[in-house]
Amino acid sequence: MFLNMKLLAQHTLNGFGGMGEGMSMQLARDGRRVLWLAHESAPKNFTAVDVSDPRSPKVIVQTDLAHAQMRSNSLEVAGDLMAVAYQVTKFGLKPAGFELFDISKPEKPKSISFFDASGPHSRGCHQLWFVDGKTVHMACADPELKPRNPKDDQIYRIVDVANPAKPVAVGRWHLPGTMEGDDAPPPERLPAKFDAGFRAHNTNVYPERPDRCYLAYIDGGVMVIDISDRARPKMISRWTNSPPYNGFNHTALPFFGKGLLVVSDESVKDNAADHPKLVWLIDARDEKHLVSISTLPMPPLDSFRNRGGRFGAHNLHENTPVPGAWRSEDIVLGTFFNGGVRAYDVSDPYSPREIAYFVPPTPENSRTGAAQLNDVFVDDRGIVFTVDRGGGGLYCLEMKV
Which pTM does this prediction carry? Predict the structure, then answer.
C-alpha cells in the first residue's frame, strides 16, 4: 500500500534486519552518503549503508555486540564522530552506557572512549541525542541514584564530550518523587497493564534553543527543561495526556517557527491493545503553558489492528540539525509499526492532513506477520529511509508531495 511514496530499494542488511530507532547520516569525506543504523537487539551492534545511490544501497560495515544480553537501540552522528547507546537486559550487567567512535573511515569505525553507566540499579542508556559534536544528551541510568520503582531507572543526563577521549558527566534531571531520597512523593502510576515507567526517552536539544531540552518522559509526559546551567537543569513546563490515555510519550519535536511541539506516543502492545497511540500537535508559543490543539489523523483501526504486531505511533523524523538532513515545519513524517511510514501536512496545525504513506508487504522472515516500521530519516534530497524492527531491514523511498 502506498500513496505519493515509491519504493526505490530494500536491503535486508545481510539477514540482520531487526532495526532499532537509531538512524543518522554521515556525509563522508570522500563524498559518499553513509546511513548509520542501530539494531534493536543482539547479535548486531550497528550497520553502515552507502546510500549515495538510494536505488542501490550497499552495506559497508556491520559490527557485533559484546554479548546477547545487550542492545544498541540508538546512535547519532556528528561529523566524523558517532555515539552509540548500550542498554542491558538486567540491572548490573555491562557494558551499559555509550561508546564514541571515530568514523572518518566508515569501513573501519574506531572506538575512542566508553562512558560507563553500569551499576546495581542500572540498565544503561536507551536513547541519546548527539548533534553538536560536543554534548551527549541521553536517557540513561545514573549509578548514584536508586529508583523507588525499577521501571523508573532512566533519567535525563548530560555528558560533555568536547574531549572525545574523556567524556564527563555534567548534569542530570529526573521527575521528582521517582528516586530514593526525593522530598516529593512518588507519582501516581498508570494501571499496571499500561505502566511503562516514569523515565526519560527522547532528549532533543536544538541550536535554535541550546538552553532548552525538549524531553519526552514516557508515562511522565513531555517537559520543557531549562539547561542554561547544565549542572542544574530545571523544569519550565510539563504536558501530560495520561491518564486518560495510556502513556509512553516518546518524542517531543519543536517547530520553532510555528511555536509548536509535535509529540508522539509509542504503541508498545500487539494488536493495538493500548490504542490509541497518537501524534499530538501542541501549542508551545508560551513555553510555560503547553496546550494540545490537534492530533494527526490515523488510518482506520480495523484495517491494521489484526495485521500482526503493533499498530500506532512511534518515531518521528526529528529535523536533526546536521548536514545531509531534511528539515521542514510544514510536513511531519512518522512510523506507525504495521501502519507503515506516513507523512502529514501540518501547515494548518488545527487541521493536519495525510499526504503520503508506504506500508510494505510482510517480509519473508517476519516474526509478527506484518512489517513493523520502527524509525524514519529523511535526507536533504527528499529520500525517505525507514527500517523494520522485524526482518525487513532498510527501505529507501522517493516521496512526492
Answer: 0.97
